[in-house]
Write a structure and sequence with these properties.
Length: 320
Amino acid sequence: MKAPPWLLPAKPVRLLILFSLLLAVVGLDKVRRWWSPTHTLDTTHYHILSSAQSNQTAEIGAKMAALYSAYTELFSKLPTVSKPHAKLKLKLYRDQREFKRCNRVGWAEAYYRPPYCHAYFSAAEINPHHWMLHEGVHQLNHELAHLNLPTWADEGLSDYLGSSLLRDSRLEVGHTDRNSYPIWWLDELQLSGDLNRDLTNGTLIPLRAILTGRGGPSMNKHFNLYYLHWWSLTHMLFDGENGRYRDKVLPLLQEGATLQSFENHIGPVERVQAEWYQHLRQLQWDLFRIGSPASNHPGQGGANREPNKPAQKEPAPPRT
Ligand SMILES: [Zn+2]
């Protein structure tokens, strides 16, 4: 027969109390983070759980449809892309506050954890959908294209498509929207015009470090810088150098976008690094009129060219 709790020695009783307190804390945290959608929306390819306003959910549904069309068009040669699949799942939160309350995410403004993309409707931003679009590309890479990519390529594709301009229900792939992450940090990049100087003083991360994920500065401390590198490199592969690399992107991705496959399909790292640097300078000029146009680089045709128009910068992840 067990002894009643008040007869237990002091230590087990204390342990029991501590354990009960821990359970209570965990339980309270679960209650605090509980999220229940107010409605759902099914589109052709997506199932959306949402606590945003119904017109906002419909807007996200339409924009994700535009992303889906752009993605399947871009990767139409990939056999997996045209295969039937289950609906892709999204969780749309009412606002940033609700998103942060319900998810343990630190500085992140959205995330993809299979099977759901999690993002909020950012009504306070000029572009309220770019967070969801970015995560939606990760989801398409994983669930539709079944690509197994290193960070630079997975994030680069998500930035490239997620930061493209959405106009008249169409995603204009490669035409960059300044009101999206990480583009709104591009004007902070202090490029001197001298590649070697910028590599030496840490303004630029070496291409080799980007491709291998090794030898660069701390990703935790410089994540905005990394995102700018991933985005601009991907932008160059699709749209730079008069489109000479565009057809090589898919084979590169299918081979896992490793350093070796990069050199096989695109070219030697040192040569491409110099081209990429010029492309980055051109993007900075096209989008923010900063620096000077790099010679012999057409930039992103049709880009938003109004000078000195401030990019929207709130809300943004912390500055590196
Ligand atoms: Zn991402």
